[in-house]
Amino acid sequence: MPYRHTLTDRVQFADTDMAGIVHFSNFFRYMERVEHDFFRALGMSIWDGHNEVTDGERVGWPRVHASCDYKAPLRFEEEFTMELLVEEVRKKTIRYLIRFWKKDGELSAEGRIIAACVQRDKMSGKMKAVDIPARIFEKIEAAPASELSPK
């Protein structure tokens, strides 16, 4: 499915606070990890620096929005599954919904990222939003509304 991807991981000691609970900021690292894994599963990389593309096709994906709502703590050594759903694909942006599921099926957190497709201008060095290249756009689609509904 080009709109859903899962990745299972285990909470590392370095991810936790003094109470052994995942520090809130690490959920953003987890969201990025599952996004990168999603791109790899589609035969691509989030970073075009090592891909066989010409300079005119190289793109980056800065975040223009990131948020996370927390429901139940994840603790040291606990296994959890990150579920990435493509909420929306526009000409220049992709919006993800990322859910964090505890092993028992309880929802731990729910986050959202909006990533813009950009290229660096060779003259000014500034990033500029561009259309998502067809080689990427054709591999990704938005999830059906039924998949995005709260569970």
Tell me the fraction of residues in β-strands, as a range.
25-35%
Shape: globular
Question: Could you give the order of the helices and strands?
Answer: EHEEEEEEHH
Structural class: alpha+beta
Number of strands: 7
Q: Average pLDDT, to the nearest integer?
A: 92
Rounded radius of gyration (Å) = 17 Å
DSSP summary: helix tally? 3
Q: How far apart are the first and last residues' alpha carbons, in Å?
A: 19 Å
Strand order of the largest sheet: 1-3-4-5-2
Q: Which stretches are low in confidence, meaning pLDDT under 50 for 5 or more residues running? A: none
Query: Quick one: biggest sheet?
Result: 5 strands, antiparallel
Helix content: 10-25%
What does this molecule look like?
The protein is an alpha+beta fold and 151 residues long. The chain contains three helices and seven strands, in the order βαββββββαα. A five-stranded antiparallel beta sheet has the order 1-3-4-5-2. It has a two-stranded antiparallel ribbon with strand order 6-7. It is globular and about 50 Å long. The two termini are 19 Å apart.
